[in-house]
Design goal:
The chain is an alpha/beta fold. Helices cover about 40% and strands about 10% of the residues. Strand 3 and strand 4 form a beta hairpin. The chain binds one RNA strand through helix 4, strand 8, helix 6, strand 13 and helix 11.
Length: about 500
RNA sequence: GGCCUCAUCGUCUAACGGUUAGGACGCCAGGUUUUCAUCCUGGCAAUAGGGGUUCGAUUCCCCUUGAGGCUACCA
């Protein structure tokens, strides 16, 4: 493979259709990493040439999502510091609908060189041609009806304002081949390539045309995109040749798959990046997860910071087969990131979930109020509460349910839950009485895990009870849950007063 | 139908033609002072099938099968 001396420039070029597909994020991630790795540029271009699929506000949503993910473009459509979407760079505009004049001038060049032609065929005729060819078991291609119209015919049709498109003139002989950085040598007979529409009747270019023109004008060196473009790449190569432009390198990425191995779609599950973010998957965990869906470092490392990704990433590590998008491992990776995270940061990230769940509320003066008990809780206390779950949670949204018991006045639960294994609830209550008496003797400031452990150990010796017979009832009295953090940790965060209150409540049940 | 592409545990994947086919997630079992989780240890689990080439194929070639993509005035 020849080394490319010029600067590496990659781009991500989404269509603003309203949501950000997780597969697009992977494509963008690979482009981003490749650019960073090679000290190149990463650009974001908006491909909004299909006017029928446009969704209001989606460009802004898209750019913001990428900003959250940390995949910041050096050039193109970017998010400014003031939160506004803007365009940056010397090769703009970077929104295709703002580049119509550019496409017009280049299509004229193709027309002049006889590499493209006007086609006045109606949709109905095209439909008919397709059906006829299908019946004859021929590829449903355009039949070339308008390929050789005379100049006078064309002028007459134009004068009569007959709607037209402009098609690319594909050679009837030979073949087009290229070296894909992932798939290797690809060779396709020209006779099997359709005379692709380049300009639509509404004056907008098709993907194939706008994409080639823009990639060239924006000096893109490596086109990293989904495998669905592999079959149409020869058309693009031909266009570069027609224009006498240097052909960039191509790297097609295998598709992400549904569990049934079809192309990953929203019909079979959640593929919107935004909803993963909403559920509390961390941006870096999402990137780490999708990085591994189709690429591997050839080592047994699995957790990568973005810097490590940049350092390790290499196009040669990309697989040729599609990976099933199965989020079980995402849960695990996300948990790893949560455990490594700074507690204060985690607390800040969890707070909105607690607010949404109606457990806390931010008052006008900035203080946090426990909405259930109306107590004011400071950030330190909230941090302690979150710390109970840091080792346990898989995603931020888990926090709502798992920590609710810390906010209620008294947890609600069935008395029978107090009983551990074969013991009865009454026996459990008796054990709690013993614990209660000892707990009362501890000084508030000594209410910490080590002291509490010592106390329980002492009680074990004095009473002959087992650890479980003491700890299970204690834990349930504090959390009201079958599964929860340990009793010492809960008691420490709760403080002496609340702990005693909960134990007492259990005894009197 | 045509064209293109792909094929290792359930999933993500590793293995210059020579390995008891490795790791991770998940699952199961055991341990770590109560539960769940964490952590540790162990276990179950794969080269789609058939032909070649070779002393020797997961690996190279061919066929079959299976899967996917493309085949729009969508991207």
């Amino acid at each position: 493979m020849p080394e490319i001396p010029k600067k590496v420039r990659t781009r991500f070029a989404p269509s603003p259709t309203g949501f950000v597909h997780i597969g697009s994020v992977r494509t963008a991630l690979y482009s981003y990493l490749f650019a960073r790795k090679n000290k190149g540029d990463f650009l974001l271009r908006i491909e909004d040439t299909d006017r029928t699929r446009l969704v209001e506000g989606s460009v802004e949503y898209l750019v913001k999502t990428f900003d959250i993910l940390g995949l910041n473009a050096d050039e193109g459509v970017i998010l400014q510091n003031d939160g506004k979407v803007a365009q940056k760079g010397n090769f703009g505009p970077y929104i295709q609908s703002e580049r119509l004049e550019i496409y017009q001038s280049y299509i004229k060049e193709l027309l002049d060189k006889d590499y493209a032609y006007y086609c006045f065929c109606s949709q109905e005729r095209l439909q008919q041609v397709r059906e006829e060819r299908q019946l004859q078991k021929l590829p449903p291609m355009y039949d070339g009806h308008c390929r050789n119209l005379s100049k006078t015919e064309i002028e007459k049709n134009l004068a009569e304002k007959i709607p037209f498109v402009i098609r690319m003139k594909i050679p009837k002989e030979g073949f087009t081949e290229f070296e894909d950085l992932v798939y290797g040598n690809i060779k396709i007979k020209n006779e099997l390539i359709d005379d692709q529409v380049l300009m639509k009747s509404d004056g907008f270019p098709t993907y194939h045309f706008a994409n080639v023109v823009d990639d060239h004008l924006m000096q893109i060196s490596h086109i990293i995109r989904g495998e669905e473009w592999l079959p149409s790449t020869p058309k693009h190569i031909l266009l570069y040749k027609y224009f006498n432009w240097e052909t960039p390198q191509f790297a097609h990425l295998p598709l992400l798959l549904n569990p049934d191995k079809s192309k990953l779609s929203k019909r079979q599950g959640d593929v919107a990046t935004g909803s993963f973010l909403d559920k509390g998957y961390l941006p870096e965990a999402i990137l780490n997860f999708i990085l591994l869906l189709g690429w591997n470092p050839k080592t047994e490392e699995e957790i990568f910071s973005i810097e490590e990704m940049i350092e390790r990433f290499d196009l040669s590590g990309i697989n040729k087969y599609g990976a099933v998008f199965n989020t079980e491992k995402l849960d695990w990776i996300n948990g790893m990131y949560i455990r490594k995270m700074d507690l204060a940061k985690l607390t800040e990230l969890c707070a909105p979930y607690l607010e949404k769940a109606g457990l806390i509320e931010k008052k006008a003066d900035g203080r946090l109020e426990n909405k259930l008990t109306k107590e004011i809780i400071n950030f330190e206390k909230l941090k302690q509460i979150i710390s109970l779950e840091q080792e346990r949670m898989k995603k931020l949204s888990d926090i709502e349910e798992s920590v609710r018991f810390m906010f209620v006045e008294i947890p609600e639960y069935e008395k029978e839950l107090l009983a551990w294994k074969k013991m009865t609830a009454e026996e459990a209550q008796k054990n709690l009485e013993v614990i209660y008496v000892e707990l009362e003797k501890i000084d508030e400031k000594d209410f910490a895990p080590e002291k509490l452990l010592n106390l329980i150990n002492r009680l074990k010796e004095e009473t002959g009870l087992s650890t479980g017979e003491l700890l299970w009832p204690m834990r349930v009295s504090l959390s009201g849950l079958k599964n929860s953090p340990g009793p010492f940790e809960i008691a420490t965060v709760l403080g002496k007063e609340k702990t005693l209150k909960r134990v007492k409540n259990a005894i009197e049940k």
